[in-house]
Amino acid sequence: MEKRILCPTRGGQASYPNQDAAIELAIERQAEIVFLYVTDVHFMDHFASPKLIDFETELEEMGDFLLTMAIERAQKSGVEATGIVRRGSFRQTLLDILDSQKVDAVILGTSKLETSMLTPEFIKDLASELSVHTGVEFIIVDAGEIVVSIKDEDNRSKKGGAEK
């Protein structure tokens, strides 16, 4: 059975170091990568406009483009890669994918961009919670460097600490 790494990404140049870490890990583990782009426009729920649907569609098209670039970069390194674009909350989308597909590890990257809503603390808490729920390894990377690997076994054995 083939190994699979899920790599959610915002895409673009700021994501390259973390995508490169995912690609390197895929080479090391002889795994394929599934890049994930999630659009969430719930912050606009109070706007009732047909333009909202157009906006969401535009975000999905941008996600397709950004994932195509990530897939090409992985393939140039000899890694089999695919992409998924989904609508919804980031947390729920991760859960849905992990519940419906075989995934061996999830790469979550922190962002240096000031516009990022995903703080390092949020990412670590999310990884710990979802690892317990799914049993999947979560690997947090920052600027292309692995910061921590979180596994369900680690969470049970360390009772509150998940670092390895």
Protein model, in words:
The protein is an alpha/beta fold. It has a single domain, classed as Rossmann fold, CATH 3.40.50. It is built from 5 helices and 6 strands. Strand 5 (about 135-140) and strand 6 form a beta hairpin. The two termini are about 25 Å apart.
Set out the fold topology.
Elements: E1 3-8, H1 16-29, E2 31-39, H2 50-76, E3 81-87, H3 90-100, E4 105-110, H4 120-134, E5 137-142, E6 145-150, H5 152-158
Parallel strand pairs: 1-2, 1-4, 2-3, 4-5
Antiparallel strand pairs: 5-6
CATH topology: Rossmann fold
Tell me the β content.
15-25%
> How many DSSP H or I helices?
5
CATH class: Alpha Beta
Provide key terms for this protein.
164 residues, alpha/beta, 24% strand, 6-stranded mixed beta sheet, disordered C terminus, Rossmann fold, 45% helix
Brief sketch in words of this structure:
By secondary structure, the protein is α/β, with parallel strands linked by helices. It has one domain: 3-Layer(aba) Sandwich (Rossmann fold). It has helices spanning 16-29, 50-76, 90-100, 120-134, 152-158, and strands spanning 3-8, 31-39, 81-87, 105-110, 137-142, 145-150.
